[in-house]
Write a structure and sequence with these properties.
mainly alpha; 0% strand; single chain; elongated
């Protein structure tokens, strides 16, 4: 019998140690997915923790033992989507501690770009962030924001052109 399937069956019966082994085997991939999606290590850790807690609470409802990993990713995906929605309502926080090069001109460029980005309309910032940093498609962004996909593409195009013009000034 497959060890993984056996662990899932034991976890479904309430065996916390079996669940811990299953979780331990996929933690890195869960965290990497959340970090890529959210772009923030603390939020990624929170999302993974929440997803694991929910998975443990509902593992008895898992229908197909062989789907454990994809089931975990689906729970995490939903947690990340909710967290991303929170970003729409969170004010932008620009830090002085910019990552990367400590070269003065490089820091000035990064600060200038961040300043320009911060001046975009909130919806435009959200669209660009979801697409560029989160990897979402215009269809997915449309579902998240409640806009039409064509509107998402138009707003993103206009916002990026606006940024490009402002950067040249």
């Amino acid at each position: 019998m497959d060890t993984k399937l056996q662990l899932v069956r034991q976890a479904k019966q309430g065996n916390a140690q079996s669940f811990a082994v299953l979780y331990q085997n996929i933690y890195y991939n869960l965290y990497r997915f959340a970090l890529y999606t959210l772009g923030n290590p603390a939020d990624a850790e929170d999302a993974v923790s929440d997803a694991v807690a929910d998975a443990w609470a509902t593992i008895g409802k898992l229908r197909k033992e062989e789907s454990f990993e994809s089931w975990m990713f689906q729970i995490l995906h939903n947690k990340c989507r909710r967290k991303r929605k929170e970003y729409f309502y969170r004010p932008l926080e620009w830090t002085d501690a910019l990552e990367g090069s400590t070269d003065e001109s490089s820091l000035d460029e990064k600060y200038h770009l961040r300043s320009l980005f911060g001046k975009l309309a909130a919806k435009d910032r959200a669209i660009i962030s979801l697409h560029v940093f989160g990897g979402y498609t215009s269809q997915e962004i449309a579902r998240i924001t409640g806009m039409k996909a064509n509107t998402v593409r138009s707003r993103e195009s206009r916002a990026l052109k606006k940024l490009a013009v402002q950067l040249k000034e």
